[in-house]
TrEMBL record:
Residues 22-481 form the Aldehyde dehydrogenase domain. The keyword Oxidoreductase applies. GO terms for molecular function: succinate-semialdehyde dehydrogenase (NAD+) activity. It comes from the Bacteria. Belongs to the aldehyde dehydrogenase family. One of its GO terms (biological process) is gamma-aminobutyric acid catabolic process. Keywords: Oxidoreductase. This is NAD-dependent succinate-semialdehyde dehydrogenase. The active site is at 259. The lineage of its organism: Bacteria, Bacillati, Actinomycetota, Actinomycetes, Micrococcales. CDD domains: ALDH_F5_SSADH_GabD.
């Protein structure tokens, strides 16, 4: 590894953050973190055991009450300092993300801006989490409504947005006055480790944020979900794991926020501006190598525009440059691991076997590194697995429709309901379509819509709750109602 990269890696704490100390795991176990572009080892981290997880909860519980009563302004200023520090360290964060996750450096820089923005947004919201005081309708007594922090939280994050998924949860929890245990994904823990150190540098009191990376996720989640002191689970990841965690969370009737998988339709109506739709499609499909829960999974294109759309999309996608994300000319990095390459190729092969054609790509690329050639598939049967399942890779399957009704039926024909995209220049059609789509989010004539000030989340099997925006803080508070006797009554 080049010297400046090694120096960066050497700065990252390798232990578990419990209370005020980065420490070894209680069993001395470790796991390696790899670079998916080269398959080389980056470093070795401590792996948390169930005992470590409970020690992290002890630390969180120890300061929960004090933290809940820390003035909102103080909590806000810590978040704001953390925003400034991440911005100062943006090149280090971006490089770290590209090293452990693979995305091109330009996209990592974009994630630093997006991820840091959650801290700035929540710092601004911390002082505005209002309750209310009002008379009862008959005017006799008074109603006092307070928002209180739910208590210690377990935050479980995925590998695809290593910084933003951590700040989106931790920023809201800090704003609400909760303490937390963050369990980052095994594949990309380094960004979370550096994020936690940055929070300490910004003045976050010890114990508010504890970080327990582990080779075995359930070694952390099982004991914590069984412990009645934990009050909330916020999870971002796949739907099957989310469902299993929801069952475990039922033991202690936890508050849960679940950001799960997606199968986003990208609808292009006959009146769409195709060049704008292509630009949107490149963002919605190819950002993060397609490894995004919001990624366009199915392109539904009106039959009269399908050839034009497919040809233009294939031309753009053929121009992508696959390679190590640290190379400045790379526009599509590696996938996260070999398993991802294999499962994406299975989906593509299934579509080809059922009669689809690849306009570009359609095969993995030789290593080292876990690369898949960006792919456009046409004539894909509706029952192909690539249409039914979350692809999580740089593969764009295109299917056609002939009526607005058919487009909406196809779009809703999935168990998921996270993101969707609609391209049309007809306002009435846009409003009709938005009204009928069963999703948490729609990009209307835009291909990238995530924003710290917007409520992010899904319906159906895509999840519960919202992250970002004022809704994001509400996920970490509970409402307490106090009925007050008529102050004029004798
Ligand atoms: P994953 O479900 O495999 O892992 C997510 C996290 O859960 C990781 O930290 C992992 O270590 C942990 N985990 C895995 N098994 C566990 C278990 N049995 N008990 C407790 N924790 C466990 O998902 P992934 O592969 O890291 O991420 C990709 C998935 O995440 C995709 O389905 C994607 O759509 C989804 N995602 C959703 C959003 C959203 O906001 N809706 C955002 C990003 C990713």
């Amino acid at each position: 590894m080049e010297q400046h990269l090694q120096e960066l890696i050497n700065k990252i704490p390798t232990g578990l953050l419990i209370g005020d100390t980065w420490r070894e795991g209680s069993a001395g176990e470790t796991f390696d973190v790899l670079n998916p572009a080269t398959e080389e080892k980056l470093t070795t981290l401590a792996s948390a055991t169930p005992e470590d997880a409970i020690a992290a909860l002890d630390a969180a519980c120890h300061v929960q009450d004090q933290w809940a009563h820390t003035p909102p302004r103080e909590r806000a200023e810590i978040l704001r300092r953390a925003y400034d520090l991440i911005t100062d360290r943006s090149e280090e964060f971006a490089t770290l993300m590209t090293l452990e996750m693979g995305k091109p450096l330009a996209e990592s820089r974009g994630e630093v801006v997006y991820g840091a923005e959650f801290l700035r947004w929540f710092s601004e919201e911390t002082v505005r989490d209002y309750g209310r005081y009002q008379p009862t309708p008959e005017g006799k007594n008074q109603i006092l409504v307070k928002h209180k922090p739910v208590g210690p939280c377990l935050l479980i994050t995925p590998w695809n947005f290593p910084l933003a998924m951590a700040t989106r949860k931790a920023g809201a929890a800090i704003a609400a006055g909760c303490t937390m245990i963050l369990k980052p994904a095994r594949l990309t823990p380094l960004t979370a480790q550096y994020f936690a150190q940055t929070m300490l540098d910004a003045g976050l009191p010890a114990g508010v944020l504890n970080v327990v990376a582990s080779a075995t996720a359930s070694a952390v989640s099982d004991p914590l979900l069984a412990d009645s002191r934990l009050r909330k689970l916020s999870f971002t990841g796949s739907t099957p794991v989310g469902k299993a965690l929801l069952k475990s969370a039922a033991q202690n009737v936890l508050r849960t926020s679940m950001e799960l998988g997606g199968n986003a339709p990208f609808i292009v109506f006959e009146d769409a501006n195709i060049d704008e739709a292509i630009e949107g499609a490149m963002g919605a499909k190819m950002r993060n190598m397609g490894e995004a829960c919001t990624a366009a999974n199915r392109f539904l294109v009106h039959e009269s525009r399908a050839e034009e759309f497919s040809t233009k999309l294939a031309t753009k996608i053929a121009n992508l440059k696959t390679g190590n994300g640290l190379n400045p000319d790379t526009t599509c990095g590696p996938l996260i691991e070999q398993k991802a390459v294999d499962s994406i190729h299975e989906l593509v092969q299934d579509a080809l076997d059922r009669g689809a054609q690849a306009l570009v790509g359609g095969y993995p690329q030789d290593g080292p590194g876990y690369f898949y050639q960006p792919t456009v598939l046409i004539n894909v049967p509706h029952d192909a697995r690539v249409i039914q399942e979350e692809i999580f890779g740089p593969v764009a399957p295109i299917i056609t429709f002939s009526t607005e009704e058919e487009a909406i039926q196809l779009a809703n024909n999935t168990e998921y309901g996270l993101a969707s995209y609609v391209y049309t220049t007809d306002t009435s059609r846009a409003l009709r379509t938005l009204d009928r789509l069963e999703v948490g989010m729609t990009g209307l004539n835009i291909g990238i819509m995530s924003n710290a000030a917007a409520p992010f989340g899904g319906v159906k099997h895509s999840g519960l709750g919202r992250e970002g925006a004022a809704e994001g803080i509400a996920e970490y508070t509970y409402t307490q109602y106090i009925g007050i006797k008529d102050p004029y009554a004798s």
